[in-house]
Amino acid sequence: MDWTPYDAALFDLDGVLTPTATVHMAAWSEMFNDVLAGMDGQEPYTDADYYAYVDGKPRYDGVRSFLAARGIELPEGDPEDPPEAETVCGLGNRKNDAFNAVLERDGVAAYPGSLALLRALGETTVQLAVVSSSKNAPAVLAAAGIADLFPVVVDGAVASADGLPGKPEPDTFLAAAERLGVTKERAVVLEDAESGVAAGRAGDFGLVVGVDRGAGEQTLRERGADVVVTDLEELLP
């Protein structure tokens, strides 16, 4: 790929730089299927539900989206709700506990192709940022040993503190570009989630790259990806 027209690369984290999307998927599945098992007439939660309703969204938004799709109504609750609470926030916190337990036990490593691209871009003038809906982004970056490559990280905690709406709205990506001091027209968004690709397109960035880790090339293109790859190694300068 010719990177000369661009000044910045804005990376999603889970599923783009690290395979933690599989950990998230397992945690969501465990949590939702435990909830659904106690409800009559509900089909099990599947990977298709993850891609359609949860992937790339802030945690509580993912809970709301899936529950709405199933016609399930629960109280909103409060972010301080314990994980056993049958509320939107309680379910989100239950999922987060499951994710952190797996991360602490197994650790995580960056995809080799993603690491190769990061190293190659590090030898250019292209600036790097991570834009993640997860509040666990700093812990994941540290566990993968790549935290020092990113001078800017706009994660779920930053979005909450700054009042930024999550993906599919473009605000977190726009904030990252602004913090790097680059224009959106000269920034590349790299995303594996439908909601993240849609955010890149809504923000009118210079290039939106879809990384197909399971959502499907056609789906990512329909959401607004200009280019779809299966591995970031395909984007080496």
Automatic annotation (TrEMBL):
InterPro entries: B-phosphoglucomutase_hydrolase, Beta-PGM-like, HAD-like_sf, HAD-SF_hydro_IA, HAD_sf, PGP-like_dom2. It comes from the Bacteria. Its EC number is 5.4.2.6. It is an enzyme of class 5 (isomerase). GO terms for molecular function: beta-phosphoglucomutase activity; hydrolase activity; metal ion binding. Keywords: Carbohydrate metabolism, Hydrolase, Isomerase, Magnesium, Metal-binding, Phosphoprotein. Its cofactor is Mg(2+). Gene3D superfamilies: HAD superfamily/HAD-like, Putative phosphatase, domain 2. It catalyses: beta-D-glucose 1-phosphate = beta-D-glucose 6-phosphate. PANTHER family: 6-PHOSPHOGLUCONATE PHOSPHATASE, HEXITOL PHOSPHATASE B. Belongs to the HAD-like hydrolase superfamily. CbbY/CbbZ/Gph/YieH family. This is Beta-phosphoglucomutase. It comes from Janibacter alkaliphilus.
